[in-house]
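Here is this case:
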Amino acid sequence: MRELTAVIQGKVQGVWFRGWTREVARALGVTGWVRNLPDGAVEVLAHGSDEQLDRFEKSLRQGPPLARVTAVKVQRAMADAPLSDFSVRR
């Protein structure tokens, strides 16, 4: 199991980015969470296989239709403990 952490910048708040991310993650079988950051960015933590995370990262770089993603900073590592679902955090 691998872990992906990402910070997505651009017009990513107020455009349904978190809900869309949850839907994409669940469709791919990825677990983790997504949340808004105070600076206007969105942060994601995701667990899955390398293939799942490759597809998930590609989706994050596109975003939902109303978003304008300008930068994505990604780090990958081995996952410490499995997560049970993908959730939206406040």
Remarks:
- Strands lie at 2-11, 31-36, 42-48, 68-78, 86-89.
- The two ends are 26 Å apart (CA to CA).
- Helices lie at 17-28, 50-62.
